[in-house]
């Protein structure tokens, strides 16, 4: 049996994150760690160590789909792996993310705070916890928006885990596509520099 490492238990942070957000939306800001860390690793190291080892969400999907057999384990459709779909989904995801940031900016400039979490970019769920009242409105607005992004991507990950293989989300995950692109660009640059030195 493979020896367990500390990072095999990172699924706990994925569950804790979603759980904490139910009680205090401001905890949603912690999700920035999951957002910035993979990008930093890709930019500074030029590798996908985050995806390969440290991603909390992939650990959760592996656990539920693999160990708990909640996955039908069907090969995902080919189109999910295609560049047009992955980059199209990344573009859509980042457009929605930008809109979320814009909404935060509007609250920063005086528009009233909207105490909702938007699920799957369509469903507006009223969020009645009280954490938002303790901070300045734009901080709370970003938290609502970011929590919606994290919840939406987790739900998509869980749905595709059940229907297909446990880590099907990783095939089209926007973060995976971004870090893969960064690594490709970085390696291309390094190769070009090596050739220049020859
Ligand atoms: S592709 Fe996304 S979900 Fe999968 S390991 Fe990478 S960051 Fe995590």
Please provide a written account of the structure.
With 198 residues, the protein is mainly α. It has one domain. Helices cover 64% and strands 4% of the residues. The chain has a two-stranded antiparallel ribbon. Strand 1 (116-119) and strand 2 form a beta hairpin. Helix 4 (56-67) runs parallel beside helix 6 (137-163). The N and C termini lie far apart (46 Å). Bound molecules: iron/sulfur cluster (SF4). Iron/sulfur cluster (SF4) binds at residues 38, 51, 55, 57-58, 169-170, 173, 175-176.
What attributes does this structure have?
4% strand, 64% helix, 198 residues, two-stranded antiparallel sheet, globular, 8 helices, single chain, binds iron/sulfur cluster, mainly alpha
Topology record:
Blueprint: H1 11-23, H2 31-45, H3 49-54, H4 56-67, H5 83-108, E1 116-119, E2 123-126, H6 137-163, H7 169-172, H8 174-197
Antiparallel strand pairs: 1-2
Helix pairs in contact: 1-4, 2-8, 4-6, 5-6, 5-8
Bound molecules: iron/sulfur cluster (SF4).
Query: How many structural domains can be distinguished in the coordinates?
Result: 1
The parts where pLDDT drops under 50 for at least 5 residues are none
Strand order of the largest sheet: 1-2
Envelope shape? globular
Distance between the termini: 46 Å
Our estimate of the beta-strand percent is under 5%
